[in-house]
Amino acid sequence: GTPMVGIGGGHYTPRFSDVALLHEACFGHMIPKYALEHLTPELLRSALEHSGAESIYLHRKGMPKSAVTRWREWAEAENIAVVSSQELPKRT
C-alpha cells in the first residue's frame, strides 16, 4: 500500500485502521487528535522520513478545522501530498 502518516481522530485511530484494511494504504505513524497540540512541522517531517511516507492522510472529521487548514497548507508548501480515501485504490 501507499505509505503515509495519519493525522487526527481518536486515541486508537480507528479511521486509519479502516482505511488501511479497505484501501491500498499503510500508516507508518498515526498522530491522534489529542497529540496535535504537540505536533510541529519538524516532528511531522521526521515521521514522514522515518516511515518512508511521502503523503499525509488528514482525518478531517476527527480534528479541528483549524488543524486541517494548518496541516494542509503546510503540506502544500512542503510539496507533500494530502491523500483522501477516495483517491486510494480499494484492496482486492
From TrEMBL:
<dbReference type="GO" id="GO:0051499">
    <property type="term" value="F:D-aminoacyl-tRNA deacylase activity"/>
</dbReference>
<protein>
    <recommendedName>
        <fullName>D-tyrosyl-tRNA(Tyr) deacylase</fullName>
    </recommendedName>
</protein>
<dbReference type="Pfam" id="PF04414">
    <property type="entry name" value="tRNA_deacylase"/>
</dbReference>
<dbReference type="InterPro" id="IPR007508">
    <property type="entry name" value="DtdA"/>
</dbReference>
